[in-house]
Amino acid sequence: MSTSKVIYLNDLRTNATHLASNSTIVTDAPVDNHGKGEAFSPTDLAATSLAACMITVLGIHADKSGINMKGTHAEVTKIMNTEGPRRIVAIDVKLEIVTTETMDEKQRIIIERVAKTCPVSLSLHPDIQQNISISYSTN
To answer: Is the pTM here over 0.90, yes or no?
Structure first.
């Protein structure tokens, strides 16, 4: 079965539907590439998917380990090539792990390894620099 269906709406805008759930995402070309910049661009989604994937696999790990990570969040910055073909050259992710407990060094090493080896991270072209910083806070 197909994963999604993407329809061109006009004016450099698409509507993508996740077929299993029927949820939708609108994309728009960025202002610096002839668009209106009123929604995620496809490259915004690619960069954002890295952080979403990291947090998702961390959630799986946390559930298995009995760790409450509710409130964990990330800030993403996508960096595009300024010379040559338009492409993502780097993705900066500032990930803050929020927990109700203090983690020891071994737990932090495991958490960071889980985050940095999520499926999206492993799927991105090796020429895309992934700058991942991880901080911790307790709530």
So the answer is: yes
In this prediction, residue 88 carries a pLDDT of 98
Phi and psi angles of residue 12, each rounded to the nearest 5 degrees, phi first: 65, 30
Kind of pairing between the strands at 129-138 and 13-18: unpaired
pLDDT at position 102 = 86
Which residues of the chain, if any, have pLDDT below 70? Answer: none
Lookup: tokens for 8: 């061109």
CB-CB contact of 37 with 26 (8 Å): no
| CATH for the stretch 42-138 | 3.30.300.20
Domain ranges of the chain: 4-33, 42-138
83-92: list long-range contacts, CB under 8 Å, 24+ apart. Answer: 86/33, 87/43, 88/43, 88/46, 88/47, 88/128, 89/127, 89/128, 89/129, 90/128, 90/129, 90/130, 90/131, 91/47, 91/50, 91/124, 91/128, 91/129, 91/130, 91/131, 92/131, 92/133
How are beta strands 129-138 and 88-99 bridged, if at all?
Answer: parallel
